Amino acid sequence: MNFANFAHGDFLALGAYLTFVFSAILGVHFIPASAIAVVITAFIAVCCDYAIWKPMREKSAGSLTLIIISIGLALFLRNLIIFLWGPDIKRYDLPVKRGIELGSVVITQNQIFVIMVAVICMFLVHYLLKRTTIGKAMRALSDNIDLAKASGIDVDRVIRYTWAIGMALAAVGGILYGLITNINPNMGWFMLLPMFAAVILGGIGSPYGAMVGGVVIGLAQELSTAILPTEYKQAVAFFILIVVLFIRPRGILGS
Amino acid sequence: MIEIGIEIEYLPYIITVLLIASIYAIFSLGLNLEWGFTGLVNFGHVAFLAIGAYTTVLLNLSGVPLILSVIAGVALAGLCGGLLGIPTLKLREDYLAIVTIGFAEIIRFFLLNEEWLTRGPMGVHVSSRPFEELIPGDYNFFLFPFVLGVLVICYLLLEKLVKSPWGRVLKSIREDEDVPASLGKNVFSYKIQALVLGSMIAGFAGSLLAFYLQYINPRNFMPIETFYAWIAVVLGGSGNNRGTILGAFILWAFFSGTRFAQGYLPFSPTQMGALRILFIGLLLILIMMFKPEGLLGKKEELTLTK
To answer: Is B305 contained in some domain?
Structure first.
């Protein structure tokens, strides 16, 4: 699609809230609740494609129009969350488990779980892009959409898959984030800038760049709290973004 | 007699709504210059409103004459706009959107946390307002015609500008920037100029907003303010100054309408607030999908397909 999707963060929050609804309110076990939430988020993303993005593709709308629509969608989703579940901080209501001590550092089981899931997701994305037909079609599409069309790739189908997988990953991100901190309607908004900074630092269109970028931005934000007030975490991501735009706008792994 | 009584009771309220709408119309005219005429996506317009408001109030508090404080606020807003343009406007067109949205949040965090300067969440009181000592009675009855005059002057100047050769270059950048570039125009420089001027207008709207509010705090400058301007521009018609003003007035009519409707709906104030913004998001999607030229824009002039 090749445009900055400002609703990405709000799909992330949606995934976390759906998990909250299924686990804390309806009493489903956390893992199946998360799975249901991821599937529903992906389903909503595909619905959005049918309702919004596909008609806009057919009108060959420019990326600026798409950006503005995506911010409209972001405002819609975020305020739907506030309308349905309120503006306050929520937690999944999971039993507290004992942390594991490694020397002077205590790691909670949740944190280990988060790291494991994140690593598994990265391998899955890698496998998907390199080994599966749909992944190869996605790469072909991002390389040259006309050439992909000419070689018989069903563009609409590939884009639907891309939305479903992309937003499912966003939902996983939101669920995991909620696991180590809390969930609130603005969580997606506050992660938007770091996410864009990570993608641009890594190089737009490069999934491995995004992984590296994500780790770099995340580490920089957390380490900055040693010298700066935590409120300025966003400013750290912003600063890195500006420096990247000046020095290497293609990003580390961008072509 | 009873009817007249009601009218007098409602008059201050109506004046206040018109006053706020006029301030937001000025604020939105700045965005219209950037997005409507030049095709720049600024998602952090509120930052310049905040810079204008805070600079005016803080300088005036420390003894700088009011008129100089306002000028400083406008200048600082313009400077920040230009600085944000430098790393972004030569690159992909969505970079400006990302950088401005981040900038607006950082300005808000700065206002919240640098208490030595801004008194943080406590906010600051406005020490003096233009001609305040000369105005008997309700100050808003003076401020509204004053702001309306500013709005008219802004409108006339902008109309003159966008119809000048300079304005025509901006429109050609919006439609296809390769064309003015091939004619030897420095597209980057024109974009920066549009961004600086748009930010200065927002800064001036910030000073006026401070005069109206009398007390400003970071909560006045939430990210949603930017999208009030967006809906005014897009609803009225991107690239149409009259449309933008119309859009701003429709928006505030809608806000005051929903305030009255609140008594009849079974929702909490928080839910009503969420519904209002939810509706704005939906409207933004629908206009961009089905009527991108807005109410007053010209369809044949505005392609926006690049």
So the answer is: no
